[in-house]
Amino acid sequence: MAGLISRLLDPTRIILSVQSTKRTTALNEVARTLVGHPDVLNFDGFYQELLARDRLDTTCLGNGIAVPHARTEHVRHIVLAVGRSPQGVLFEHGNETVHLMFMLGTPKTKPGDYLQVVSALCRLMKDPANREALMKAATPEEFIQAVTLAEDRMAVPAGA
After folding, report:
1. 4-154: which CATH topology?
2. What is the mean pLDDT of the chain?
């Protein structure tokens, strides 16, 4: 069974080489992959809420990872887009250079779903080997495969 994160990933919504090194421009670059997503009811509304949330406080998790997100009525179900920046994007709030952005839109009515996804991302990104595999993936499909393998490893109980 596919893990929570890999089920949300779509190769057309993964940018492996984000061009911008400025936070807001990089966020826009990644967010644009969600234009036309069937579960995004109002892209502009979602994007404005995402930016507003990002201005409030850092969305950095550490280790060069950020999870910019919005809990909003502008999405029907959880949506996820990924941006990878080999050169890094400075997130001023956390004063951190981010290399992987996992952008989430979650329905306001389902806060538990949001927490599950963020929790799964935190567990996944805690392992340096997982971060390295995601930074090395040559294609969006390889990126998804690396996430799937990491999720499968996490699902196996220790000593099994």
Report:
1. Mannitol-specific EII; Chain A (3.40.930)
2. 92
